[in-house]
Amino acid sequence: MTSMIKKRWIFLILAFLFLHFYQLPYYYSQPGGAKVLDDVINVEGGFKEEEGSFMLTTVQMGKANLFFYAWAQLSPYRLLYPEEQIRYEGETDEEYQHRQLMAMDGSQVIAKINAYEKAGKTIEYDYKGVRVTSLIKGMPAYGLLKPGDHIIGVNGIEVLTSEQLIDLLQGMNLSDTVELTVMRDNQMESVELGFSKFPEEMNVPNDRVGIGIQAPITDRDVTFEPNVTIDTSQIGGPSAGLMFSLEIYNQLTEEDITKGYEVAGTGTINEEGTVGRIGGANQKVVAADRAGADFFFAPNEGGVANSNYQEAIEAAEDIGTSMKVIPIDHFDEALAFLQSLPPKN
């Protein structure tokens, strides 16, 4: 009898370990938390007395095991994604996490630029070119460029930003070639590349061609006066750009634009202040509601169908929150909405 009990316990322990450690080719995500940005952003000599707060919202994500796969079936706010939707081909988990952290770093710089320009503060730029972060296997750049290379020219035209690079490479055909000026290990090199179609699994329109660079990043040193620091630990991705901008702007200006409200939200932001689409908007609504937010800013995407705003509205109605979801297309719209609010009682 004792032997049978021991065998059952051994079987249960082994079964538990199998369920826990056996990873499926999926990523699992669920609502994360809401982080108060006054705790992680500091403008030297800035105005830190806020009656309310701005909060970034997060989604928890990791590799799915059998338990999480089953658990995801029980709620519309727990989602599964095939690996190929999350990671580039051949990319390791460590490389994916590094890419996400780099995207977060980039979003912080752009958020600072928006806030400082709006507040009329000093910004200085020192451009180093466009950093190559990932290459698509089988396309022309693979094997000729390396992660860490800096592209500083296209066909003799100086390139400072990733947007410039993308613009210069658009509209090409399979018969075209391009000459890139590249800085590698402090040495300038010239690399000639052709164009090819993208791998079928990337679901790129069939008439588009490229050289095979993924997620290029503008590499530059940007100096802000006064200095500002952001500490977000291991949170990755660019989706907190809008909320970073609002918190930084609030610390740069004397008026407290929170007016006592708890304001959560999400959305990328570019240097023109346009707020862009993110993933997991419905999950972030759940996180914001749990944190007691009064408002949730969601990318409106110009009012298109299936926008992040529409996704957020549906989630808010589903969970029965009193939190108001606000559509945002531009940084100025977020500021205008906040400035229109009466102080919270």
CATH top level label of the largest domain: Alpha Beta
Apparent shape: globular
Overall pLDDT confidence? 90
| Tally of separate domains | 2
What is the helical fraction, as a range of percent? 25-40%
Give the assembly state of these chains: single chain
Q: Count the strands? A: 20
Number of contiguous helices: 9
Radius of gyration based on Cα positions: 23 Å
Q: Which stretches are low in confidence, meaning pLDDT under 50 for 5 or more residues running?
A: none
CATH topology of the largest domain: Ribosomal Protein S5, domain 2
N- and C-termini, Cα separation = 68 Å
Determine the structural class based on helices, strands and strand pairing.
alpha+beta
Work out the strand percent.
Answer: 25-35%
Described by strand count, sense and barrel closure, the largest sheet is:
6 strands, mixed
- Following the backbone from N to C, one meets helices and strands in this order, namely HEEEHEHHEEEEHEEEEEEEHEEEHEHEH
Quickly give the CATH architecture of the largest domain.
2-Layer Sandwich
Read across the widest sheet, the strand sequence of neighbours is 4-1-3-16-19-20
Give the key terms.
single chain; 345 residues; alpha+beta; Ribosomal Protein S5, domain 2; Pdz3 Domain; 2 domains; six-stranded mixed beta sheet; six-stranded antiparallel beta sheet; 9 helices; Lon_proteolytic
